[in-house]
Amino acid sequence: MATSSMTLRAVIPAVFLLLLALPVTSFACRCAGSLPPAAAYRLADTVVLGKTTAVSGDINREGLTATVRVMQVWKRTVSPEIVVSTTTTCAFSFQANQEYLLYLSWEPHSRRYTTKACVGNQLIAAADQALRWLKKYGRSVALSPG
Prior knowledge:
This protein is an alpha+beta fold and 146 residues long. Helix content is 25%, strand content 32%. Residues 15-27 have low confidence and may be disordered.
């Protein structure tokens, strides 16, 4: 019995070290479901209705940067044109020349807006419920001057 106990004590650390040496697979982001408008609004620093005028970058590498012409805004005033970055494994897949409802976070250290896939962003064509909620409960604010 002592021999088997000693063998087990030697095997466990070896197995642990072997597991540490195995390559790690990263998994793409999976949203748990669509975020209700009230929750998406509460979590965002600002919410905008806008059209992407340019999109650059690679979603699988450094992420995407979208220039957005803002048509309507809630919670916090923004300029008529903003730049939005998305860089995590949960990056939002912007397409150029599309209209979106975007839930944004403000990054004060980099002075930029960011967003992710699972925060409630939608194409305008699919955003009827969220737009109705925003009209009823959201705090609409004016765009800042140019």
